[in-house]
Amino acid sequence: MALDPPGDIGTAIGRPSSILLAQQAYVVASRNETTAAAKSRCDRTVEVTFWIADPPAVSFYSFHCSKPPISDSKDADLEVEPHVLAAEGRFVLLRTRFASGDGEYEYFLYKGDVKSPSLECIPLPEDCMLDGVNEFGILPRGDTFLLVGFYDGLMPLDYDLRIYSSEDKTWRTEKLLNPCPDVGIIIPEKVITLGEGVLGMVDFRRGMLVINLLQKSPVARYIPLPEPLPENTQKLQIYSPSASPRRFRDLACSDGVIKFIEMEHRVIVKETREIAPEKPKNPIQNGVLHDSELIWRQTQKVVESKTKMEYLMNGWWATTWTREMESDFWLPGCSIDVDDILVEDSFSKLLSGQSDDANLLFKNLNSAWPILSTDGDDILYLKSLPEFRGSNGWVVAVDLAKKTLKAEERADEAHSLGRYIPSQQIFHPCTLSKHLNITPVDPVHTINLFDTWCKILAN
């Protein structure tokens, strides 16, 4: 059944200069001034609509597909849920797959425009080799764009760039030599724009490749990242050599300055007593064996002897580093400890009402997945959850310079709703809001949208 948009659009004046865009889609037929449509390769009519909120609130997009004529019924043809692959300026790249399609992914490029937003179905390259590309970069060129996918080459010391031009609607492949083979292969986990025609392919463990796509034959430059903090180094060694540090690292660029941040969490480990199993008894000692007792014993679970480990969050601290694009060194920035952050009383009271622990503090939340603002300020966004693998929590904004915290403003009657924030959900900071003709969604309606989205995913 189709769901309506979250009511009144709100009364906020102006649009935020940047937003945090949710990666996962809200699959429903909902429309506003941002709605744009396109035909898929399998003859589906696809609609994409954006719902903008002022950070630290998260902005959403809705996705709907149907056969002509367009209907408002929920489409069951989606084999892979739509998700954002990249966002830059007025452009957002989405990927999905239809059960009735040809088995290949479908890519859609949304272009924001205050008068006439548009949606374009991106054709596949002739060899269809995009399955190995999970990270894309978008290079805006006025109203046109280049779409760049990073693909491991056939040789161990090189890469392939899969480049799509919106001007001639064609793909091409550029070979790229590995500038630092001793480090190994860079596996991008994030792609950022570093300047006009320049992309940064970020591997949060091994470093970043800087690629100028305006060069006739692109050449990559390697930038290593600062070494992990001591506790993080041990965690990466214990968990897995291939584990990603993205949970506690981020990198962004603003006005030609690259900023890097790393968090280190303090965890208290509590060990409970061993549960001693019941010593088996010789049944001959019981004398008469009643059926009821025998049946009761068969239904009892065997108590195993084990030690239970409990992990409690005890705060975190973070440090930043900066560097100019052409420099060969990192400069230390600021350091901040969660104990030094000023938390508003209203948020502290909200925390105590969302947990069995009446004394729950911000420092005890599982705050991770840092996102640096791209507005040139010192704002850090964090996902903060009461439980490590929970889903009800908040996205908060920490001012690293002022050491203050801002959480999304919400009406008192809505406090009990919590927020649906999947622990692995990725948010894409972008400036799409500058190119849309829409007023930011009022906080109360944003909550309703989150709550509805949560129910949809649960079903």
UniProtKB/TrEMBL annotation:
InterPro entries: DUF1618. Residues 202-381 form the DUF1618 domain. Pfam families: DUF1618. This is DUF1618 domain-containing protein. It comes from Digitaria exilis. PANTHER family: DUF1618 DOMAIN-CONTAINING PROTEIN (PTHR33074:SF60), EXPRESSED PROTEIN-RELATED (PTHR33074).
